[in-house]
Amino acid sequence: MMNVESFINVGDGFVSVSEFKGKVKRSEYIDGAISLTINYVEIINISMWDYIDQLWIYILNALLDLNNGNDVEFYFPDQPIKVTMKNVKDNIFLKVGDSGLMVDKYEFMIFMANSCLKFLRDMMSINGTPDYGTEIKLSLNLIEKLNSQWK
Fold first, then answer.
1. Residue 140: what pLDDT?
2. Domain edges within the chain
3. Which of 33, 74, 95, 126 is the most buried (most CB within 10 A)?
């Protein structure tokens, strides 16, 4: 079981990206958060807020590297929160900060790639955000590649 939701910081709290109405204050630094739960373990939560679009792009790049057989480490864009993703046979060992777990590689990668795509498409409908066309194409290509590799 995997669940992810993306939020934009609206000053006194967070609003789901899919429900956000209005204009972002600064298109180059969009404060927000990801809530990611895998197998009932909360891996990322709202208290780990950061530049939400940059974080999703970091995740997308990590997925691309993982799919090429590479292990990945990166930090959140503006927080000292380390993310580690390691290939372990047909699984991924995912660690964010102090929380870590093993997850099925295909299930994780296809879920996260689709979630990234949804986030980027939702962001494109928000006034004042950058053009994420390149990242959307990368997401679509990764999803297509994953589906052809694992089916």
1. 92
2. 2-150
3. 33
